[in-house]
Amino acid sequence: MLATHGTQLVGLASYERTDDELRVHEIAVDPDLSFGPSDILRQLLDAVELAALAGGCRRVVLLPSAVVAVEPFERLGYRIVNERCAGAWLEKSLT
What CA–CA distances, in Å, run from 13 to 22, 34, 42, 86? Predict the structure, then answer.
């Protein structure tokens, strides 16, 4: 998933669909923007969630490699799941 402003690439998200979830491996926003990177993050995640719903997924999982800071994602409805030995990730239920 790519986010552009005119011809400029301002963000991206890479993901894969597995059974009933969509796993986001990477999400990045250009840090040198003159406008709000949080808006781009929100729009990228809206697009990812729409792709998940269109594919019949029940949740979106943000893998640790995709998350630099938790707070921006929590404001968008994601919650931390900590499974001790299995690790931790962020997820949002779409049901």
Answer: 12, 20, 11, 23
Q: What distance in Å separates the CA atoms of residue 49 and residue 87, rounded to the nearest whole number?
A: 23
In the chain, how many domains are there?
Answer: 1
- In this structure, what CATH number is given to the domain that contains residue 80? 3.40.630.30
Rounded-to-integer distance, Cα 76 and Cα 72, Å: 7
Q: Containing domain of residue 25, as a range?
A: 2-93
pLDDT of residue 34: 75
pTM exceeds 0.70 for this model: yes
Q: Give dist(CA 80, CA 85) in Å, integer.
A: 15
